[in-house]
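User: For a benchmark we're assembling, each entry needs the component sequences followed by a predicted structure for the full assembly. Here are entry 17's components. Please fill in the structure.
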Amino acid sequence: MSPWGSRKLFLRGDIDCIYGEYEMIVFENVSKTYETGTPALNNVNLKIEKGEFVFIVGNSGSGKSTLIKLLLKELEPSGGKIYVNNKLLNRMKRRHIPRYRRGLGVVFQDFRLLKDRNVYENIAFAQRVVGTPARVIRRQVPSMLSLVGLAEKYRSYPKQLSGGEQQRVALARALVNNPAILLADEPTGNLDPRNSWEIMRLLEEINKRGTTVLVVTHNQEIVDAMKKRVITMHKGLITSDEKKSGYHQ
Amino acid sequence: MRFNTIVYCLKQGIKNIFRNKLFSLASISTMAACIFLFGLFYSIVMNVQFMVKEAESSLCVTVFFEPGTSETRISVLGQQIAGRNEVSHVEYTSADEAWDSFKDVYFEGNEEYAKAFMGDNPLINCAYQTIYLSEASMQESLVNYLESIPDVRKVNKSELTANSFADFGMLIGYVSGAIILILLAVAVFLISNTVSVGITVRREEISIMKLIGATDFFVRAPFLVEGILIGLVGAAIPLAAIYYLYGSVISYVLEQFSILSSVMVFLPITDVFRSLLPVGLILGVGIGFLGSSTTTRKHLRV
Ligand SMILES: Nc1ncnc2c1ncn2[C@@H]1O[C@H](COP(=O)(O)OP(=O)(O)OP(=O)(O)O)[C@@H](O)[C@H]1O
Ligand SMILES: [Mg+2]
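Assistant: Structure for entry 17:
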């Protein structure tokens, strides 16, 4: 397998900002207000460097998922600028979006597996999208599945899986292309403590091999133990941002 | 584009059909019903046109000449007439030929009476030219022209008014054109309806695919393959049915309305299918493609 984080972000296009080569993600005064009028993010400023491991914590409704969705360009910010790898997302052309997204691995809070395809096909799909040769897919999907502990369930459909199993399929899908950035929205929300720890160790391993990792979580114990950078959000604001920190509200 | 991707899109398109069996079945049967009706009207139109053409081509004007007109003069006139646009060809019947064919019919069974006329042709002034028209509607003007020639004694035109042929042909064309248009509109409406029934599943599927980084083309191609296949199958079934039913329907019609058998000449199925097969298949594929491409395009903006 090629090294983690080997997938490049952007293969073409100019550099849009003056941030150094270390910054992977930059938020400049980013706000997001939904059509319903709900303010989800309020003037957020944030810098994440290449190769960092960051926890994002905060109350329900504090804007964590919104932040992830903005990074994925599933949503557009109402104000401010978002740069990823020195590229301004706001101005990205529609036809360049698929290429950008292929450099990201995403675990959605609601999993978003393809309902009418089995576990194997769900993971293989992510590789087909990037044009991986069939023989490589046949080799990598099973090894990805055993990595998340689901080797036996490859023929099951999402609705035949437990919440935690679906979550691990989603993680396998996010990792299979060696993304440059991993965005994981509560990747252990449905897992027992032992499985949660295994997944966190896996994410740490992936981070060590070069992938920038953002993990949204409510798991206080894990955050406290891992001593990573922790960004705390509250009502759409970043209320604290500390290196080698623990969980606090 | 990679070969892998093409194979994947084809496979996925076929899988889609079986995945949404009910939806596929509904689409195929709607398509089949429409193409069947289309094929039915198409065959009728082709046969009516064929019959009209047949009738038209046997439509002719007979010209008799003034007594004493020389054979050379008659053949010169014949060539002159044959050169006209509305004329398909001209047949000359000499006085002797006219008498021969007349006496064969009139003295049938009593041939010895005909001998009395030996060497004395009572139809000596009855040489005539038979003029076959290429276009029925031109009969009127041709007759006017012929009557204006001084050597012409008499012009016999066809009993049937030539214009009625042309009018009938036009009427059939318009009516069937209108019916076919209505049918196509109904087909597109029904197909888009059945497609949108199955779209809720797809809407979610499409948005997930796009968030993972799939291009519009990659997301759409399997759906397009699916639409095209549904169109193809939906067209092939009714076309096959028409192919096998055609002969028995015609023999049934001829049996039931045996009086008509002399007037009605039907086209062989191979002649009908020479154009109906490609037209029907293209129509099916086209409707399937349109249905799936418009419905997927709506859900691509993610
Ligand atoms: N599609 C939407 N339309 C309208 N309002 C929304 C939408 N999605 C989220 N919101 C609102 O935006 C705010 C932030 O939501 P968000 O999903 O980012 O919270 P979160 O921090 O991820 O919460 P949780 O921990 O429960 O997942 C909430 O008040 C929520 O109600
Ligand atoms: Mg959330």
